[in-house]
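Shall we go through a protein fold together, starting from nothing but its sequence? Please make up or recall a protein chain and show it to me in full. Go ahead whenever you are ready, and we will take it from there.
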Amino acid sequence: MGASLVDQYQRQARWRRWSEALALLPLERGQRVLDLGCGVGEIAGRLRQLGVEVVGVDANEELLSAARLSYPDVCFE
């Protein structure tokens, strides 16, 4: 049996350079950010650590469930 969709998303995080990409964003503490297609919530979680308010949105309930478990301080819909 193949890897679940959640597993696939989490594996991809290993080779993506999110820290570099997020460093380029003009973010301010308290700013509100909408993460469309948030997947397993990794970016939403990182943004929350930077002090922004995040709402993560995804159409896949399996991914949202994983995101809610991993990042309980972020709102996922």
